[in-house]
Amino acid sequence: MHDRSPSPPPDPEAPGVLVLGGSGCIGRHICAAFAHHGYRVTVVGRTPAPHLAPHAFHPLDLLTAPTDALTHLLTSTGAHVVVNATDMAGATDVTSAADGGEQRATELLAANAGLAHTLIQALQQCPKPPRLVHIGTIHEYGPGDPGVPLAEDRTPRPTNAYARAKLAISQAVLAAAHTGTLDAAVLRLVNTVGPYPTPASFPGKLLPQLRAAAHTGAPLTLNVAPAMRDWVDVRDVAEAAVQAARRPLTKRVFNIGSGVAVPMRELVTHLLAAAELPPTAINEDQGPVHSLGANWVQADIRRARTLLHWQPRIPLQQTLQDLWDAGQTSR
């Protein structure tokens, strides 16, 4: 598995990074990547988790924390970088919001707007504001056109509540950066996949079902969307966050993906192979599929390659094997 070797104890003189949402499925890999590059990592979240043991942890509810509390934390830890890997989708039901639940959509937008206001003000109050790396989503652009990669100069036209809420915080960060009061980069991620996925994701939902199929031998009935998706390994995302923290920024927005649109059926086939199950282990259902994404998602990643000197390194087949293996050992 492409996991990193254990990082040495943090050097008290090393640059510090504060990872907001570091206990999450993306945040945990970002913490590991920064530690690997010699940063002192402080995780900020509501509750600690066992996998965060190598890092300092500070409990803070970012939805209710006053600006001054976050500013104090930034200055007291000597943070040079802040990574916002929070996802306020947890504040409401994202699928219902995407389907038009007006109250949930309003709550989602308010949660993200509140976080953006607190975070930006806290950074601006620091004597020497750290660089902010904000984790956004490719869905901020809205649906793409088949065969046409989504580039950073595309005008965002999100079509669901989740994407609109994510765009709101990205726009607030970029507005502050453009005035010169904040040093920041926004990374817009495609679908992420890898070890320890969020249970709400397609791979995260499929993993326990495949475990059950492997145990019982009974075929699994599954809806597979007739869609093309760009998938990137979450560990490659973590490396992109490190590079966005370290490199000079002549641009502020970077798409992070594989740059390849993959049929959803191919993803399922690779995961079946990782589980050592035959293609017949799945019966495809033609029922409706609920998704936040469009039928075609493919990122143009040339800017990240050129300016961040970053590129995806872990192929999808290896990613899915690592996802399966991690799921078996963590049971």
Observed structural traits:
single chain; two-stranded parallel sheet; alpha/beta; seven-stranded parallel β-sheet; globular; 331 residues
Describe the protein's topology:
Blueprint: E1 16-20, H1 27-36, E2 40-45, E3 56-59, H2 67-76, E4 79-84, H3 94-98, H4 102-124, E5 131-137, H5 161-178, E6 184-189, E7 191-193, H6 202-216, E8 220-223, E9 228-229, E10 231-233, H7 234-246, E11 253-256, E12 262-263, H8 264-274, E13 282-285, H9 302-307, H10 316-329
Parallel strand pairs: 1-2, 1-4, 2-3, 4-5, 5-6, 6-11, 7-10, 8-13
Antiparallel strand pairs: 9-12
Instruction: Output the structural class.
Output: alpha/beta
Low-confidence stretches: 90-99
Continuous helix count: 10
Shape: globular
Mean pLDDT: 89
Query: In percent, how much strand structure appears in the residues?
Result: 15-25%
Q: What integer value in Å does the Rg equal?
A: 20 Å
- Biggest sheet strand order reads 3-2-1-4-5-6-11
Helical content band: 25-40%
DSSP strand tally: 13
SSE succession? EHEEHEHHEHEEHEEEHEEHEHH
- N-to-C span: 17 Å
Tell me the major beta sheet. 7 strands, parallel
